[in-house]
Design goal:
alpha+beta; about 40% helix; about 290 residues; single chain; two-stranded parallel ribbon; 11 strands; 3-stranded antiparallel sheet; Arc Repressor Mutant, subunit A
């Protein structure tokens, strides 16, 4: 049985809490290295260009949130290890859509078939592939869902703008509270400036700034619609939502509810191997140099 965190009624929902926690590149990198075997403070210091103060603060925050437990170092909990699908989706998206990467990303092989692969977003119930543009999902906000409750109270930036890291564009999309909300609105079909402002309930200046950022990254087109690059971010979004709603539960119910129309079940994201079609698990993903 999952050790779910209960959230109070009327406060930040599962999506808002998760974006506040994982919408930070240092936290994502710390979790990535933990999945690759890091468990001691010195392990992360040796693998990442991170200061002692920042590392200590992030480890403390992730431990308080239940992703690590203290013992002989830091051990990933089931909740922490479950972030693997989010990280894999980010890895694949950055690899495909950010060619001028400041730090070279490793390749990946599926342990079961022994071949290089990309993760494919599928319905966990029927194993059918799901794309942002195929209209196979129906739904939206659930009982605890609203724009206000889905925007995190604050997010922390990893580095200065001029010092890009391993996940630079993902951080730009989900590491800023208003960017994350705007991306979410775009995936729900919003594409007019006034509608973005209404959903986000913030100033026109802020909306304009975030739209400029997303257009400069090639995620939104000049008419504020998701581009191919933006649509390809869908697996990251759905894996984040899935993780959020497995581990956080608002008193009123889920923040987002989707039905997969081809099979008629409530949609839960899963990832398959693009090469052999088998379901991916955390232990089946092998990084290569």
């Amino acid at each position: 049985m999952l050790d779910v965190t209960e959230l109070p009624a009327g406060q930040r929902n599962a999506v808002g809490v998760t974006l506040g926690l994982l919408g930070d590149e240092w936290s994502l990198l710390i979790l990535r290295e933990a999945l690759l075997g890091a468990s001691r403070f010195v392990d992360w210091r040796a693998r990442l260009p991170i200061s002692n103060a920042v590392l200590a603060a992030r480890l403390s925050r992730l431990t308080e949130a239940g992703l690590f437990v203290r013992g002989n170092g830091y051990r990933l909990t089931e909740r922490g290890a479950d972030v693997w699908s989010v990280l894999l989706s980010i890895w694949a998206w950055e690899d495909r859509w950010v060619p001028s990467h400041p730090e070279r990303l490793p390749g990946r092989v599926h342990r079961l078939c022994g071949k290089p692969f990309d993760p494919v977003l599928v319905c966990s119930a029927c194993d059918t592939g799901v794309l942002a543009i195929d209209h196979s999902l129906e739904g939206g906000f659930g009982p605890s869902g609203s724009w206000e409750r889905s925007v995190p109270e604050a997010t922390t930036r990893r580095r200065s703008v001029g010092d890009a890291g391993l996940f630079p564009e993902t951080t730009a999309l989900i590491g800023n509270r208003w960017s994350a909300a705007l991306v979410g609105a775009a995936f729900q079909g919003v594409h007019r400036f006034n509608d973005f402002q209404r959903c986000l309930n913030t100033s026109p200046t802020m909306v304009a700034d975030r739209i400029r950022t997303l257009c400069s990254l090639g995620v939104l087109s000049d008419d504020y619609r998701l581009t191919g690059k933006g649509l390809a971010f869908f697996p990251v979004v759905m894996c984040l939502v899935g993780w959020a709603q497995r581990w956080y539960r608002a008193e009123e119910g889920p923040a987002l509810v989707y039905r997969h129309l081809p099979c008629g079940t409530d949609f839960e994201a899963a990832l398959d191997c693009s090469t052999c079609g088998d379901r991916l698990t955390r232990k089946d993903v092998v990084p290569t140099s």
